[in-house]
Amino acid sequence: MKIKFIGGAGTVTGSKTLIESNGVRILIDCGQFQGIKPLRELNWQSLPVLPSTVDIVLLTHGHLDHCGWLPRLVEQGFKGKIYCTSPTKDITKLILSDSAKIQEEEANKANKEHYSKHEIAEPLYNLEQAEAVFPLFRVVKINENIALDAEISAVFVNAGHIIGACSIELNLENKTLVFSGDIGRDNDILMYPPTKPKKADYIFLESTYGNRLHPDSNVKAELEMYINNTVQKGGTIIIPSFAVERAQTVMYLLWQLKTEGKIPNIPYIIDTPMGISVVEIFENNKKWHKLPEQDYVAMCQMFTMISDYQDTIEAIYKKRSKLIIAASGMITGGRVLSYLERYIGLPETTVIIIGYQAEGTRGRKLLEGEKEIKIYGKFYDVKANILNIEGLSAHGDQKDLINWLSELENTPKKIFLVHGEDGALEELGIKINERYGFECVIPQMNQEFEL
What we know:
single chain; alpha/beta; seven-stranded mixed β-sheet; 14 helices; 22 strands; 31% helix
């Protein structure tokens, strides 16, 4: 059996792990690279194997860094099956459609305003190519054994993180391989705790927060303070948010604060069409989350939900204080850019960063104190107050990741640490070895192992 790491190795994006066994090729996740330019450029490269020779894709969840390269895979000849849970299928369809539209819009804008370095800017894929992925989905139920081939089977188990997210147990050649996907938190506001593996010969463990602990802070109190301080100055609050799970978590907390009379009566706006659709997915998949039905209904009534871009323009130019939740969460694209064009240069504005910011993203640059950011080819002075609420991350921290291994009944032969930046990978490996004595390996991009 051969394992090749063709994404998500030494970085937190582009997750792709290729398994070859007895003539069958399986791809665990098929993510898009995000962040710094050298990573983004990898999206234009071909796989080290022909996509037409890949038989199966197993999808842990619907975030772009795990599913966003599927349209390229299909365009280049993949005709196999894509296995995932029902919420993951729905979210992936939303995310791929949204990603394609954003890429088409940005390419058109770059060509119209002539700020691309290319003679003709092209999207990584268009909407038609994204939609070509959808017929290949095969929905699985969690905790059920799925026969993928005569001698290969898989079990999807809850990983927390976002709705529908799973870890995958793959059984082949008398070995059990466990792919963590992205691990959620044990005490998440909306998601149930991740299911811990009981046995594994090899584990592929994400390491996003491998060198960090989430602060033991009162997230609601932080939100309350930041909102009230901004409104007192007559300012606007902008929360760049991942449309899946994070936006819904923030909505829930804001609804609680408003119900308790702790934040003012200003417009609360959700301006992410995909985020609005995800709210519907929450409604249709109640067993996947902890949000009570009556709270869900009341929460939605509090927010103005914007889909039409003309309404976005109107919201931007209304002069009163308001709070906007808009994608994308790392400020790499989406409607949040339109709000930042208008508000990033105003000292009374507050931008609240609420999730992991990959290297090279605008969100990371703002957190690191950049004095100007580039949006659609133009530079804008950063005068807004940039704040960070770490306690809202949907990723488990170092403690959660180490505890995820605590119920193993055997000693794995190796734990491959993936989906993390160098410092996080190294520190997590040391901590796991100290606690359990497990051997940890940090694979490099395109490195291959025989198991």
